[in-house]
Amino acid sequence: MSEMRRVTAIRNGTVVDHIPSGNAMQVIRILRIDTDRATPVSLVMNVPSDKLGRKDVLKIEDRELDQEDLDRLALIAPAASIAIIRNHAVAEKMKVELADDLLNIAKCSFWNCITKNDREPLPQRMRVTSRNPLQVRCYYCGRDQEINELIENVL
Amino acid sequence: MGDIVTMDDLTNQEIVAVLDDAERLVPVARGDVYLPLLQGKVLANMFFENSTRTRMSFETAMKRLGGSVLNFTSIGTSVAKGETLYDTMQMIDGYADVAAIRHPRQGAAQYSADAVEIPILNAGDGAGNHPTQTMLDLFTIRQAHGTLEGLNVVLVGDLRYGRTVHSLSHALVRFGAKLTLVSPSTLKMPVEIVSDLREHGSEIMETESLEDQIAGADVIYVTRIQKERFPDEDEYAKVAGIYKIGVSNLSGAMKGMIIMHPLPRVDEIDPGVDSTEFARYFEQAFNGVPTRMALLCRSLGIDVPKEVN
Q: The pTM is what?
């Protein structure tokens, strides 16, 4: 049995493959699928992978991820591959790419940052200062962000 | 383009150029020469938090150059009614040509710079940056030693919370200074900063004792241990008054060594030191004027003439 066949193929939607093993739940949270009760999601965790050793896979029905989703996803699954499925066939393939500048992806976690006032209208803005290990710094206050905290603060 | 939010907004070359401009502006800062380079220009002093020296020296700098100043405080204004920083700055964008901003929140200066067209000078944002203070500190050091390169600078006191010593030490290592960090263990320079400084290839030494460091110092930069930072009175009492410089401590000091302090002081430096050749803290406070003049000119795109008289 192919690893991809552990769950049924979907008709329309998105397959997120090559998620680092154990991170699928975070992906669900970061894509805000956890609060969206209308979307059927299939989840495969810890399956063997040539690329990653072990990986997680998500199949999200009737939702096509957009660029903003991919930018968020890049924070926790920078090697993920995305397939948009239409009518049971792969219609589009996309790569996740972590941008240098993260606009309105997550809120700064520093308690005294100017952006803590929700009424301030300028976008939340982070800079990726290192990719491996991942380091993200608030563009305004200059504080380095804890990656786990950042994921909690995703907008 | 003329924004100065952190010292990273200036290259070493630009720092030296601003210090050169400031040096030529000293007679103007003293009021001996009238040079209305900024006539017709308006500075908005946006102080969302108290300040004495910084606000007043910005004001003097602007006025000595023939410009005028709008003074803003957040008490009893639209800010107290809940106005956002963005909205307040939009208003100022229409009223002034340049703004100096001090704000309790970190990142407020960068935020303002992004919100408006006019150039923004950061006059202190939370525990973040205070680049115009760093510039006047560099000016004072260069004035005394003729150079910024390769000096042995001893930083003393609260190195943990003091934004002044953080940005100064970053700037000094860019010029190859050797730093000696003297503080009680509870007030040490944050490890991230120390490792940043070492990455520049600079020699950094940390110690709790000031006594042994005086003889080798070119500069002793003293800061106040801030009572308000301590969770309880006992902890403060343990370190309060731990570093006190009196005339008797200075017998072994090198000729030409200078003592600096961003002020206000409490009891770190005995008033007896004020009349020695080492004391530079009041001059340092004055140096805020020519330095901020040079920075205002730079931000407004006005060249300081090569000869001022």
A: 0.88
